[in-house]
Amino acid sequence: MITLLTAVSLLVWVYLAAARGGFWHTTERDDAGPAPKTWPSVIAVIPARDEAEGIGQTVRSLLLQDYPGSFSIILVDDESSDGTAGVAERAAAEAGGSARLTIIAGAPRPPGWTGKLWAMNQGAERAEAKSPEFLLHTDADIVYQADLLSRLVSQALDEGLVLSSLMAKLRCESLPERALIPAFIFFFQMLYPFSWVSDRGSMTAAAAGGCMLVRRDTLRAAGGFEVIRGSIIDDCALARILKRRGPIRLALSERVASIRSYSTIGDIRRMVVRSAYAQLEYSPLLLVFAVAGLTLVYVAPVLAAIFGHGSTRMFGLLAWAIMAVVYLPTVRFYRLTPFWGPLLPVIALVYTVFTLDSAYQSLRGRGGVWKGRVQGR
Question: Model pTM?
Answer without folding.
Answer: 0.94
